[in-house]
Amino acid sequence: MAISDHELIEAWKHVLTLSKLEKGQHVTILTGANTYPQTLRTAQVACQALGATISRLDLLPVNGEKALSRDPLAYLGVTPLTGNAPALAALKASDLVLDLMTLLFSPEQHEILAGGTKILLAVEPPEILVRLLPSVADRQRVTAAAALIEHASLMHVTSPAGTALSCPIGEFPAISEYGFVDEPGRWDHWPSGFVLTWPNELGSNGKIVIDRGDILLPHKSYAQDPIELQVTNGFVTSIEGGVDAALLRDYVEQFNDPEAYAISHIGWGLQPRARWSTLGFLDRESHIGMDARAYEGNFLFSMGPNNEAGGDRTTACHLDIPLRNCTVRLDDRVVVENGKVLDRGVSS
After folding, report:
1. Cα–Cα distance measured from residue 99 to residue 113, given in angstroms and rounded to the nearest whole number
2. Rounded distance between C-alpha atoms, residue 193 and residue 195, angstroms
């Protein structure tokens, strides 16, 4: 169901206030071919209402001829900022960048953030933005989970379907995604609500079973039959199963890159307003699947790059796969049990 401009303006004002936007600050709104007009229109009104100085930077799309999907996460690497010094300078000179285009996994984004500029990504359809409006409670819950990761040395994941994965952690930071940018140099994504880190390089071992009903992204599909992944020294070494396994193998193979098989980020969803079931209601090309990534209690693992965490793996292939019904342990502490988050007193 559609969202009125008034509702979305109020949502923007809420998120921008949580992001500590102040009167007189400079906001650059980054747009592209797939930017939602209503999201852009209402963002401009909300920024102006809060007294910001607004610029719009519209960039042409890239990688379309290489990707198998229109999803902006279907092919990473070169971005519209690559070699575009004037555009990069404008973004670095801003206090806040509202990314309505999807600028991810790029050295240019790191360069912008390093100067203290904040970046907020917001590319989901307006009705999802409003439904998954972030809160201070989201921040408290996600940062508490991140603190648990920071003090752990091993993440161990099991499931009734057969997952048994051990991931030593500590080489890379814990990342909190709660939907707003309240510190200089912070990146976040509205909507979100999950915590993640990356396993130590070459450290992950075991088996991952993608069960029926688990979600493949960027495919935006529910698995119809189990897919079994063997993980050895940080890399997926086999993908076995039926048609779904064959489709997954074919997708990864087309990148012709051994690093595409690396285990990337690992973590769990903490957003109670996100739903596992929404994928079936949405046009695949209208969204990037944030409900699937964030719904409470999923174990989200990824294959592909780690440069967002400071690593040097920059493969163009990126898969996010949230699993249901998993038990996640940090050292000896259970933080998710059979798909239920154990907050130990932290309210959702």
Report:
1. 13
2. 7
Instruction: Classify domain 5-131 by CATH number.
Output: 3.40.50.2300
Q: Which residue type is seen at 9?
A: I
Burial 129-164 (b: 16+ CB within 10 A, else e): bbbbbbeeebbebbebbbeebeebebbbbbbebebe
CB 169 within 8 A of CB 268: no
Residue 74 has phi, psi (to 5 degrees) of -80, -15
Answering whether pTM is above 0.70, one says yes
d(CA 72, CA 320): 13
What lies within 8 Å, CB to CB, of 85 at 6+ separation is none
Q: CB of 188 within 8 A of CB of 180?
A: yes
Q: Going along 124-174, which residue ranges are E strands?
A: 154-158, 164-168
pLDDT (0 to 100) of residue 344? 62
Quote the CA–CA distance of 186 and 204 in Å, as a whole number. Answer: 28
Cβ(341)–Cβ(328) under 8 Å? no
> Both tokens of residue 189?
């994504």
215-216 and 175-177 beta bridge pairing: unpaired
Cβ-proximal residues to 274 (8 Å cutoff; 6+ apart), any chain: 132, 191, 193, 290, 291, 292, 293, 294, 295, 296
Question: Cis omega (within 30 of 0) on the bond before 125?
Answer: no
Residue 97 CA to residue 51 CA, distance in Å, equals: 15
Delimit the domains of the chain by residue range: 5-131, 136-341
State the Cα–Cα distance between residues 85 and 91, nearest whole angstrom. 10
Residue 313, pLDDT above cutoff 90: no
Percent of the chain as helix, strand, coil, to the nearest 5? 30, 30, 45
Tell me: the pLDDT tens digits for 51-68? Answer: 999 999 999 987 777 777
